[in-house]
Amino acid sequence: MTFRPDDLKRMYTTMVLIRKFEQNTIEIFSRRMKQGDFPGALHSSEGQEAIAVGVCSQLRKDDYVFSTYRGHGHAIAKGIPLEKVVAEVHGRSTGASRGYGGSMHLFDKSINFMGGNGIVGAGLPMALGTAYAAIKRGTDQVTTAFFGDGGASQGAFHEALNMAAVKKYPIIFVCENNHYAATTHVSVNCPIEDIGDRSKAYGIPGPVIDGNDIQEVANTVGDAVKRARGGDGPTLIECKTWRHRAHCMVIPEHRPGKDRRHWSARDPIDHLREVLTARGIANEATIQKLEFEAQEQLDAAVKFMENSPMPDPAEVLDVVYAD
């Protein structure tokens, strides 16, 4: 599929927005930590923006998405209002989960964004539920489950793929293989080079793609969506990528410098910028305008967050432990 210029520019703006969001959030968290106000362990998705935006560009509002604890990009790309994402990450009552979920548990039922999870790979079996519900209702809704390379070695991964394949559930399993499960290289817990090859055991497609090329991501997911909506069952997609930062803010960087240098030359935003200029879709002035628009959105969302109150402790029993 050849994407229209406006689509590519929109993708670029969203990717830049996610990148700026991550950088701004880390800046605020770091400042708070220095002041002795520990806000929690933030898991940045910086460097993986092409997967979030590429996948969600092929989904409808009523399609389901199960995220991970590194899910800020998924939430923004799926369509949770930016001010609600910013407010939630900083624990404000105007956030997507009223400030009780934080960065790991972004959730918005209005767009069927079913949230992240602090348990590795936990979204995989849960995705079976919404897929089954869509079949029972007779809709053509698709469910997407994001997970990392570490999640691909959990038992839940194999159970979910097996059941989805047997029942031909409309699910797209998206593995964001950034090569490290926290501090463990993928080669330590996966005996084969490509996680996508595990699809062969379940008789479903398992394309292995460049997760930093948003057009390849979107085209591959588009094919999987057609397959799912057509009743042909699930697809496993492995997206090779790289997170720019350490696992989270409380774990020091440990990955080899040569690997970081290799992947820094394959930045997904740089790649799409080159596509825009090479195709004559955008010149430098246009690129700057798109980036300025993203910054304006972020600035407005941060201001909204700063003017929002913290949750009222008196309502905790009504919100966290509600029936």
Describe the structure.
Helices cover about 45% and strands about 10% of the residues. It has about 325 residues and is α/β, with parallel strands linked by helices. It has one domain: Rossmann fold, CATH 3.40.50.970. The longest helix has 30 residues, at about 5-35. The chain is globular, with a radius of gyration of 19 Å.
Short summary of the structure?
By secondary structure, this protein is an alpha/beta fold. Helix content is 46%, strand content 9%.
Stretches with pLDDT under 50, minimum 5 residues: none
Give the N-terminus to C-terminus distance in angstroms: 46 Å
Helix-strand string:
HHEHHHEHEEEHEHEHHHH
Number of domains: 1
Give the averaged pLDDT, no decimals.
95
Please give the radius of gyration in angstroms.
19 Å
Describe the secondary-structure layout.
Blueprint: H1 5-34, H2 49-56, E1 64-66, H3 72-78, H4 82-89, H5 123-137, E2 143-148, H6 155-167, E3 171-177, E4 180-181, E5 184-185, H7 186-189, E6 208-210, H8 214-229, E7 235-240, H9 257-264, H10 268-278, H11 284-306, H12 316-319
Parallel strand pairs: 1-2, 2-3, 3-7, 6-7
Antiparallel strand pairs: 4-5
